[in-house]
Write a structure and sequence with these properties.
Helix 1 runs parallel beside helix 16, helix 4 crosses helix 5 and helix 8 packs across helix 17. With about 450 residues, the protein is an alpha/beta fold. The strands form 4 sheets. The chain has a 7-stranded parallel β-sheet with strand order 3-2-1-4-5-6-17, with helices on both faces. It has a 7-stranded mixed β-sheet with strand order 10-11-12-7-15-16-18. It has a two-stranded antiparallel ribbon with strand order 8-9. The protein folds into 3 domains: about 120 residues, NAD(P)-binding Rossmann-like Domain (Rossmann fold, 3-Layer(aba) Sandwich); about 160 residues, Dihydrodipicolinate Reductase, domain 2, CATH 3.30.360; about 90 residues, Domain 3, Saccharopine reductase, CATH 1.10.1870.
């Protein structure tokens, strides 16, 4: 019997845990789910005979390490900064590790030791990053096989609300870690555009969006995602002139978030005592309000828009002008905003989310320019069985299964899934679960 340790029982874990439980009898697997929230684990395991609950503090080595030692493979859905605790244990006890997060500097520094131990630490194995790497590299390698020279690559992905559940003026609800949404873009972004490196600071991130139409998803906008340049070598596109990785949102969301950013409402540094404050007084404090005009006029002036602009309705809908008391304590504006958005952007039980991914590639072949568009649209069933949980969890689950069943010889090192030996069999099985890309060639 193999033992699989899953660290994390949050929003994105439901599909992954269910996948392992569904395959556990046939493969003789024991599934340990470790998290600090007993109720979340209980809900996900649902009394399955092969499931085991471990309520632990993941930062406590005495609680964590014995579980890693018992496991044959470790799958981490913890917040990115916590993977390193599991990684150190996995190295010590010689266990393969799979995570959905970007490769951190700490994790990267472990590469030589992980290779020497003959282990696989597969990172960036979720949706974005994850499915994007695998599907993009499958396209890129197929173009290389016909001697195509790739000149432009754009990859865009977004976790959105499905049209039938889109009932607020922001066209958005939380489908994954809410705090990550609030701090998105914090480090700015960098990408290659027509041969020139473009850097976008945080304060201009959400005004820096471009429109596009995707069949089945409608009109969307994208803004650049982190540092695209770090993937140039890994994607093996030496002749490339444009290389952009981006996040998809509704255009109104981008405009609205830029307004919140400009008013300082996303700041993580401005801790203050919230006792006695309301949402309206917080807004006034952050925007330097004086009593000479109405708060709505002041905000319109601050944003340089008309008081009847659609943006004002979006802010009004959030409740920013209300005299509703803030939770008492010492919090940052980002904390206050998150608390508000958790109330406003929560999915109802019957709500459906939607994951959209699109790659746009241009390449030269025999003197002609060829354009390839490859898109994936997946809708969830409801809040619990979401498209986000499916697309984040499925790649990790399939890789773990293929390693445990010897379908894949695990590559060694601290890696992301850009190698043929990994992405080819995974894309085939994911297609059986409805993760399918539709290609259009011009």
């Amino acid at each position: 019997m193999y033992t699989i340790l899953i660290a994390g029982a949050g929003k994105s874990s439901s599909f992954l845990i269910n996948y392992f439980l569904t395959h556990s009898n046939r493969n003789k697997w024991k599934i340990i789910v470790a998290d600090g929230d007993a109720a979340a684990i209980t809900e996900k395991l649902n009394g399955h005979e092969n499931g085991e609950m471990a309520v632990i503090d993941i930062t406590n080595a005495a609680e964590r390490e014995p579980l890693v030692k018992r496991a044959d493979i470790v799958v981490s859905l913890m917040p990115a900064h916590l993977h390193i605790h599991l990684a150190k244990d996995c190295l010590k006890h010689k266990k393969n590790l799979i995570t959905s997060s970007y490769i951190s500097d700490e994790m990267k520094e472990m590469d030589a030791a992980v290779k020497e131990a003959g282990l696989m630490f597969m990172c960036e194995m979720g949706l974005d990053p994850g499915i994007d790497h695998m599907s993009a590299n499958a396209l890129i390698h197929s173009i290389h096989k016909v001697s195509g020279v790739i000149t432009s690559f754009k990859s865009m992905c977004g976790g959105l609300i499905a049209p039938e559940s889109d009932n607020n003026p922001w066209h958005y609800k939380f489908t994954w870690n809410p705090r990550n949404v609030v701090i998105a873009g914090l480090g700015g972004a960098k990408y290659l555009n027509k041969g020139k490196i473009t850097e976008v600071p945080y304060d201009r991130m959400f005004e820096h969006n471009k429109r596009l139409n995707i069949d089945g998803a409608g009109s969307l906008a994208w803004y650049p995602n982190r540092d695209s340049l770090r993937y140039l070598d890994l994607y093996d596109v030496p002749e490339i002139k444009t290389f952009i990785r981006a996040t998809l949102r509704h255009p109104d969301f981008c405009h609205g978030w830029q307004a919140l950013l400009l008013m300082g409402l996303t700041s993580q540094e401005d801790y203050f005592e919230t006792s006695g404050h309301t949402y309206a007084s917080w807004l006034k404090m952050k925007t330097g309000y004086k009593n000479s005009i109405s708060i709505s006029r002041h905000i319109a002036n601050t944003l340089m828009i008309d008081e009847n602009d659609k943006m004002m309705g979006m802010l009004q809908w959030l409740g920013l002008f209300e005299e509703k008391p803030l939770q008492a304590g010492r919090y940052s504006s980002a904390d206050v905003l998150l608390s508000l958005l958790l109330e406003k952007w929560s999915m109802a039980p019957e709500d459906k989310d939607m994951v959209v991914m699109q790659h746009e590639i241009e390449y030269e072949r025999r003197g002609a320019t060829v354009k390839v568009s490859s898109s994936m649209i997946i809708k969830g069933e409801d809040r619990e069985h979401s498209a986000m949980a499916k697309t984040v969890g499925l790649p990790m689950a399939i890789l773990a299964k293929m390693v445990l069943t010897n379908r894949i010889k695990p590559p060694v090192g601290v890696l992301l899934p850009n190698m043929v030996s990994v992405y080819r069999p995974l894309l085939v099985e994911m297609a059986h679960h409805g993760v399918i890309f539709n290609e259009v060639v011009e």
